[in-house]
User: Fold these one by one.
Assistant:
Number 1:
Amino acid sequence: MSKFLTGKELEDAIYDIIWEAEEKLLIVSPFIKLDDYFKKLFDRHENNPKVHLLLVFGKNEKEVKKSMSKADFDYFKKFPNVSIIYVSNLHAKYYGNEIKGVISSINLYDYSFKNNIEFGVYSQQSLMNKIKQSADNDAWNTCLDIADENEVVFIKRPVYEKSKMIINLGKKYVKSEVLVDSTERFYGNSKSSVVEKKRLPDFPVELELDDAPVERPDRSETELQEFGFCIRTGKKIKFNPKQPMSREAWKIWNEYKNEDFPEKYCHKTGEPSNGKTSMKNPILK
């Protein structure tokens, strides 16, 4: 169900989205400026690696600090599970967590919340509705596609230690690791002329402590391949063994997160796998 919001109702809806996130917090806003109240909301997730904070901002390509100050950028770097993406032509605004979403005119900017007349369309969904087509689902998926296709500026991921007991007691959070940090270059403080742009699908959603390959890799497995196939639907997608599903299939898989669940296709070739592929092993040997 969708609802038109403005004024305090709109502000409170966005505040609740930030405060109540349990797994995913998606912020899409060209301009970001945080006051102390915004920081109190975000600080709720400061020590929670289960919440993935995905932040997409943009505009002011030649002077990025006008879109988000270096101080605010550095503030977000403290979170244990965070991705920060830059989109030069971003104008859209969206705020969402795993349950609620707002398509809005308002930037994550303290002045906008205190002074501007802003509109928004709010949606709250059940678990079943998350896999159905709706305006909020379309907005969420579009924002994720935008994040996937644009430049990563900062990535930090949680590191877990899996239980070594016979009875699986889950995994234990150990620390977080920074996988990419282009802050200095992005804010004009680095003289480096070498630019290797990274994208969000290049990075895992989490890391395992002392995770290392036990077999010598095959050269053919590391050759550049631009396209692959969704292991559940067979749909042609970007080749990425760490994310071998289409967005729609992954959303359904993510509700249960069974890495060993048998899938139907080989991610590399698209041939039927007869259940021999899975999220953990997406390529037929």
Number 2:
Amino acid sequence: MFESECRVNPWLVLRTKSHHESVVESVLQQKQVPTYLPKRAVVRCCQGRKRKVEVPLFPGYVFVRPSASQYEGMRYIRGSCGFVLASGRPAALPEQDLDAVKMLVDSGADFTVDPELVAGTKVRIVSGALSGVHGELVRIKNQQILVVNVDVVGSSVRVELDRGAIEAL
């Protein structure tokens, strides 16, 4: 039964206004729409004090799983900007992708999210011996080491660089 529910009610991605993720999540929960808003802890300095606060892992987005009867009312949620679309229809998020996000958040591991730096992003090296050279980000080895593919003399060279040594184009 659970599998058939997943097919009928897939997870969707709802866009929100800036800093409205928790408000949207709260309203949807009051309407009994299943939601998931992954958060991570960060340290913020406020009036000379350091505080640990939770911020959305993906700012501007809330994952939702509305039933067919709840779907129409999703347009009128305060702070909501509509669904992320693919081919003119709300884009369904694969269950395994959401499970992976949940596992990451629940693990307590220290991580960062950089939406500019994903595999395939064109980058420019801004420091070091290869400063000024353009390449393509192949993968992120860990939080500080990036693997960049650089075309040199018709051959491809993979270089490991620190995060601060590149910028997205």
Number 3:
Amino acid sequence: MGQYNQTRIREFVLLGFSRERSTNICLFAVFLSVYLFTLAGNTLIIIAIRVDPRLNTPMYFFLSNLSFLEICYTTSVAPQLLAHLMTSHKIISFHRCMTQLCITMCLGSTEFVLLAAMAYDRYMAVCHPLHYMVIMSRRVCIQFVLLSWTLGFLNGVVQTMFSVHLHFCGYNIINHFACELLALIEIACSDTSPNEISILVAGVIILLIPCLVVILSYVYIISTILHIRSSDGRQRAFSTCTSHLTVVTLCYGTTIFAYMIPKANTSPNQDKIVTVFYCVITPILNPIIYSLRNKEVKAALTKSVRNLIILEKE
């Protein structure tokens, strides 16, 4: 223990993607564009849902919360990533690293539970349409959102508490572009079994159980849709679910690959790519998927943009 205290580090070095300045400049341009588009797209969705009375339904209430979550999630990583791409000193203090870890774990965990709540909402809409608005009341929707944030917050705090007590024996180089949980555990020299157990428990509660809820919901949804006699009715029923199902597949798929695949089967570069996908790419896909696949959202977004243009001209 004495040795650990003497070699306790105060900062980490993030290796990032490349040491070539030209490559980093190109990556900076790409990630900056993606980040700005993510902020603009998700903000427009929130505004459109707020101002359009037709979108005052549980489905769009959850979507507005998801868009807000995506803005927070990508902001927890992107600004620091952009700053480090333009500097040769990719240093982050121990406290900032733990803060980033806590925030990203909280937000990522919240998203998994929220997506499960959205799947249940689609199940009620398709399988029990007559009771949908009664069961999925405003109060119930708020409770689902609060549950998502509570579980996400608890998981983020727990994972951070275990990480704070890790010892690194003076080795502070993280082969990543952010303070990612598995990358930190990889360079620790102390016993990491408590961290691994906490990740396993969180994986079951935060990832696998919500994933099971999503799968069961869509099993019932697809079964119900197949029993609809009208082809137009089947198409309308399934169109309300395709956007959410696409987002769910991308989000759960990348995270399961990152945390459930044995690390011996992956490389640090693969881990970085996967992290980029669910921290940077997935948030930008949310407004694209929902605006392209949903006519109501597309119409509301068009109306919101038109109103903003009119206001600027005035």
Number 4:
Amino acid sequence: MRHTAKGVRGPGFRGLTAAWAVSLVGDGVRVVALPLFTASATRSPLAVSAVAVALTLPWLLVAMPAGALVDRWRPRTVVVAAHWVRAGVTGSLALAVHTGHATVVVLCATAFVLTSAETFADSASQVLLVELAGPGELEAANGRFVALETIGMDLAGPLAAAVLFWWEPAACFALDALSFVVAAVLVSRVPDVAPRRSRGDLRGQVLQGARFLVRTPGLRSLVVAVAITSFAAAAVNAVLALYSIQVLGLAEPVVPGLVVCMAAGALLGAWLSPRLAARWGAGRVMVGFLALLAVAFAVFGLVPRLPAAVVACLLCGLAAAGWNVLSATRRQRLTPGPVMGRVTSAYRVLAWGLSPLGAGLSGPLAAATSIGTVYVVAGSIVGLTAILLARPLARG
């Protein structure tokens, strides 16, 4: 590995964040455009739910072996390869949308492949982040990442999606493909990290990451909280576009505006969380963010008016970003470097494994009752989680 100055101001970390910023803008376009295109093309809660399931299912099926392989390979190479795969897949999706061949089956298959590649890139990026930032600056590094994620995925990307979707939906996915090409070039210039050669079979290494999570108290309570919250968030996100169009009465190009409101709250949450944690303790602040997220979900469903939705989106963004910064930092501090990839992937599987179930149940629940019911149920689940896990999270 080439020697480079560590820390968030070092050239290595700056290069990594530049690549993140570019790819996240493209992801922000796609994350809005894919469910919006599905909702506008089908008007079906079941179709929207199916695409959402395909988008989250790889975290259950692919993430754990991906993490074990990342611990064997060079992380920079993994990220570059994943970006190129995603560039090709999103480029093909753009062509399918433009030619009228983007059926629900095509949308589901594309979503599954994109997230599968993301499981590799995510684990490898975590290794690069910890190595390039250094252990002393993990809060700052995660805060910057969440801020970049917010600006790219929740602000710049959705705004671009609003304009491009009005002009030509296929252009949204073409821009996403271009962003991955640029990100692959930028990551290829980041200092690499030599893999720590792991002994043993792949299956044993996969299980090692899961055992480490289960046997570490601070991580165990964290992963349970994230699993339940991800279930609720997946249900909410799956019907957001449909809720905006059918309940709030928004025109399709205006729907990304709600995501922009979340971004504004998330930027505040990313900035506040390290400061609140330093004053009150990370555990207590994390519990507070969970409670705030529960309130935001409930308001969204109980008050189907645009002003209330805007406030709820601001609170959702603030709570989610604050939680993400502090939970990621806790996980990284409690995970040894040689097993970072497989522990990160096992964490994703255990934490996000319920996401496909949440996304899958949201459509039938909305069809049987109302879309607002999905938000009320999600808020109740998150609120109960905050109460039951308040003590172990505060201790962790």
